[in-house]
Each structure stands twice: as structure tokens, then as C-alpha cells.
Amino acid sequence: MIPLLLAALLCVPARALTCHGDSGQPVDWFVVYKLPALRGSGEAAQRGLQYKYLDESSGGWQDGRGLIDSPEGAVGRSLQPLYRSNTSQLAFLLYNDQRPQASKAQDSSKRGHTKGVLLLDRDGGFWLVHSVPDFPPLASSAAYSWPHSACTYGQTLLCVSFPFAQFAKIGKQLTYTYPQVYDYHLKGIFAQEFPDLENVIKGHHVSQEPWNSSVTLTSQAGAVFQSFAKFSKFGDDLYSGWLAAALGTNLQVQFWHKTVGVLPSNCSDTWQVLNVNQIAFPGPGGPSFNSTEDHSKWCVSPKGPWTCVGDMNRNQGEEQRGGGTLCAQLPALWKAFQPLVKNYQPCNGMARKPSRDYKI
Ligand SMILES: *[C@@H]1O[C@H](CO)[C@@H](O)[C@H](O)[C@H]1NC(C)=O
Ligand SMILES: *[C@@H]1O[C@H](CO)[C@@H](O)[C@H](O)[C@H]1NC(C)=O
Ligand SMILES: *[C@@H]1O[C@H](CO)[C@@H](O)[C@H](O)[C@H]1NC(C)=O
Ligand SMILES: *[C@@H]1O[C@H](CO)[C@@H](O)[C@H](O)[C@H]1NC(C)=O
């Protein structure tokens, strides 16, 4: 009986690690939009712990199941393997230009302006791209939590499940974004298979032109994503200096406006890059807020089909920093994000070349 049971257990095909949705189910991808602390009713709203949830089959934005600091929600549940007692069979990298207090990483001003998590087993795992400062907690802290510093403002998190082999390409992208890695585990087969991730952990970065790199990544369920990554020497704005032309579309860009040297909307090239300044979720009572309350970083093409979620703002300083964004042409993603743009800064009185696409 016991040997049989054991045999049965051993025969279960290995299941790759994945993102988990808000109901605890494995999902190919999800987006969590943490809402700013709103003046609306309810203690959770005031503390800034509420969020909206989106995946392929959620039928648009849904209210988060609980609060963002719950280990049962999509973000907490997905990161759970990190906080188990034994992570020896996993590989992970936690990187953030604003690292949690407990970690002992170096000064990050030369590193990329980039935040994320790679977490995988031998069959695959996920890449979580996000805007959250001081997050996530170190694996040694043994529990998921949400930092106080990330409660007041809006934040975005995009989680995508990828097969094992895709992490080589993700590793390449990280040699461009030059992240500050503040916690990691990369041993044995993981170190062998992903030399670029080892290089990134050691603080190495791309050392010759080109200073930007774009790769196609295919998720576990076959969804196609396009990753854009730039190194500091790229020396230009991600959106107006590359992304709009690369995607061949105008862009409406949501980013954090409370920084110095914010770049204005830019219509001087073929494609317009427009700064979003107000966001509104659909429906009566759907929360609405200003970009000054929203630390999240995403963009959409006004007429589709592109949506990107990443970690770069539009300001002069970040022209000289690494960072990037993860884009896709998924209808479920675009249909959810495009209507969020309530207002944007037009290019008043700026000269612009004839454009193929004026009407937005
Ligand atoms: C973790 O698991 C591995 C393999 O299952 C085992 O060899 C190792 O001793 C475990 N480590 C701890 C600290 O329990
Ligand atoms: C528009 O963007 C391009 C590329 O980033 C930049 O070279 C140009 O100076 C910008 N124009 C304005 C008016 O900001
Ligand atoms: C880098 O960005 C430039 C635009 O600034 C673009 O023309 C070029 O194709 C990009 N290079 C790569 C390798 O994607
Ligand atoms: C958002 O910004 C607009 C224009 O700058 C301002 O009139 C409005 O009061 C702001 N709303 C909030 C909720 O801060």
C-alpha cells in the first residue's frame, strides 16, 4: 500500500511553479492594481490596502478578494513558495531600486530603476514586474507582508508564468536593466542554465552597444509578451525614445509625476507619447484618482492592441537609468487598461510631424 502510494506520488508529472490568481488557482498571468489610499469610505480604503484584480478570464477588473497584505490574495499566494521553510529546489531573484530595510545591498542610484521578482522551479516559474518600493520581503523573513511605504499611492504588479527555458531570455534582459538584487538563490542547474542571471547577481551588466534589447517571451499557456529593456547608456526616455516607434503606435503613459525633471507629453516624432494625469475605473463609484496619487507605471496604445506594465517613469534622471517594460497585445489586458485613461496632457502648441494617427 505504502510503496504503491509512493510510486503514485512519484509519477505525478512535475507541475511548474506559476502565478496564482485571486481565488488561489494557477493562472498564466494576472495584473493587480493597488488603489491609492482614497478618501472614500471604509478603513481599508483609507489605509490604501484595496486593489483591483485582472486575469484572462476575470471578465475585466474585479475587486480584490481581500486586502493587498493578505497572503491569500493573488500576490501573496504567488509569492508563498518564497517564504516556505525550504527553498532549496527553487531559484529566485528579488530586485528593487528601493530595497527593503533589512537587506544590505549597496547604493542603488547607478542601478536600474527597476523592480521585480523571478521565482522558478525546474519546470518553470514566473516573472513579477511591479512598481512597489521596499517589496517583497526577504525570503528569510518567512512571511509575506506589504510595506507601509507602499500604502498611500497606487501601484501595479504584472505576474506572468513562463516555461523554464524563457528565463534565459529574461536573464539577458536583466543584464540591460541592471537591477539591484537584494535577495537570491541560484544554485546547481539554475546557475548552469542561466549564466546571465548569475552575472546579474554579481552586478555585471551589458558592456557594449546596443544599449537596449527587446525579446519575445512566450508564457506557459502560449501568450506572447514583448520585453523592452534599456541600460543607462541608452540615454533616452523609454517611451518617446524607443517604445512608441518600436510598437508603431501612439502611447498614453501612466507614471509617477512627483519627481524632478518630468518630461512633458511629446508629439515631436511620428508617434505621440502622452502623459496620463487622471485615472478612473469604470462603473459607478469606480475609484478615480490623479497621477500624483499613483506610483504605478503602465502604458496603452489608445486604439489598441498594446498594453505594457513596467518600472520606468518619464523624467530626465531615468533617461540615464536602466529599466524596462513588459508588453502584450492581449485583448483582455487592453480592454481593461485603455478605459482607465480619464485624462492626459495634450501636446499644446508643440510642433509635430505629420502623423498617421491623429485622432485620439
Ligand atoms: C531542503 O530540501 C532538500 C531536498 O529536499 C534537502 O536535501 C535539504 O536537507 C533540506 N534543507 C533543510 C534545511 O531542511
Ligand atoms: C521627444 O522625444 C524625443 C525622444 O525621446 C526627444 O529627443 C525630443 O527631444 C523630445 N521632444 C520634446 C519636445 O520633448
Ligand atoms: C534600440 O532603440 C532604438 C531607438 O532608440 C531602436 O531603433 C533600435 O532598434 C533598438 N535596438 C534594439 C536592439 O532593439
Ligand atoms: C486632480 O487634478 C485636478 C487637476 O490638476 C484637480 O483639479 C483635482 O482636484 C485633482 N483631484 C484630486 C482628487 O486630487
Automatic annotation (TrEMBL):
Cellular-component GO terms for this entry: lysosome
Gene Ontology MF, one: deoxyribonuclease II activity
Enzyme Commission number, as recorded: 3.1.22.1
Signal peptide: 1-16
Keywords assigned by UniProt, alphabetized: Apoptosis, Developmental protein, Disulfide bond, Endonuclease, Glycoprotein, Hydrolase, Lysosome, Nuclease, Signal
Substrates-to-products reaction catalysed: Endonucleolytic cleavage to nucleoside 3'-phosphates and 3'-phosphooligonucleotide end-products
Predominant location: other
GO biological process, one term: apoptotic DNA fragmentation
Cellular location(s): Lysosome
Pfam families named in the record: DNase_II (PF03265)
Role this protein plays: Hydrolyzes DNA under acidic conditions with a preference for double-stranded DNA. Plays a major role in the clearance of nucleic acids generated through apoptosis, hence preventing autoinflammation. Necessary for proper fetal development and for definitive erythropoiesis in fetal liver and bone marrow, where it degrades nuclear DNA expelled from erythroid precursor cells.
Protein name: Deoxyribonuclease-2-alpha
Species classification: Eukaryota, Metazoa, Chordata, Craniata, Vertebrata
